[in-house]
Structures are given as C-alpha cells and as structure tokens.
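Comment on both lines for my students:
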Amino acid sequence: MDVYSKKGKLCIGECHPAGKQTIHPITLWPIKEEFQYCHVKPYEEDGVIKHTDNCSGRGSVVDKYTLLTPKIEFQYKDYLKECYGIKKIDDAIKWVLKEKRDSAKDRIMHCAWKAFWEDILKSSDILKPNEIGSGKLSIPDTVIEYYENTCDKKISFDECRKKIEEYISKNSEKWFTINNHNIKIKKYLCS
C-alpha cells in the first residue's frame, strides 16, 4: 500500500523525521524540513514549488529499497552546447576541422548526428530509392565537404551526398540505437 502526504500527494519513498537531510529522488536537491516529511513529485502552491509534504501516516511505510530513482538521460544537444558551444551541425564540423585528436572528432560528430538528426530531416518521410541524392535531406554542404576526403579514394561531392543520404535512409528507423554514426558513415562511404 502506498504512503500519502497530508495533502493527499503520493509519497516517493518513506517518511523522514524532522531535521533529517535527504536528497530529493527526482530533482536531486538537498532537502531538510522542520516537520516529518516525505518527498513528493514537485508541485506549485501559492507560487512556490514544493518538493515535500507532511507525512500523514496513512498507508504503510514503503521499503527504503523501493524508492524511485531519478532517470537522467544524456542529451546530446545540451552536451554539445554547454561543453563546446556547438549549436548546429555546421558548428560541429568547424570544431572537428580544428581538432587534432581523432577520438575527439569521432565523439563530437557522433553527438552531432544524434543531436541534430531532426534538423537534417526536412520531413519524417524515409527517402525512397529514387529520391536518394535529390537534396530532400537538409545536409549542410560543410558536412559533405568534411566526409568527402575520408576515404583513400577520392569521392565527388555529389557522390558523397548521395552515399550519406543512402546511409541515413537505410538507418533512419534505428537511428538512436546505432553506436557511432561518424565511424559508420566513414565505413559506408569507403565501402
């Protein structure tokens, strides 16, 4: 049976005694109250965001090992923007062209392909074979130029665009499960 606060909010975990410092399992903020409390899903009351409420004693105390844990998801766009000042795929290309370390280039381009995926697609339609190379994907020229010289053999700009569009078309449904697009695109271009 769940534990509820005095205001009827579902407690996230157990009740804590007054004065005990805890970490809120969703916001990860330190919490310390002057009353017996439980963590609740943040809510607004009188213009103030509240993270706790008085324990009511209704219901049974939840086993401390069944606490909800926060779900933290890695956001590629935030990472690129905050750590490198990269706000679009063109910025990523400019960054990797200045970088000397291949591992850093691969990391940034991998993140860029994941972060700016929606910017690259003009529509959610997967390209049909006769549309490959038609420019229906908004792949910036800087991206094509970057990949143009990745193989031992020279690939023309148009051929490079076509192959990248083929790669995107073939992998669009499983885009976010692919480990490193940068490496995979290079292999695809050189095959």
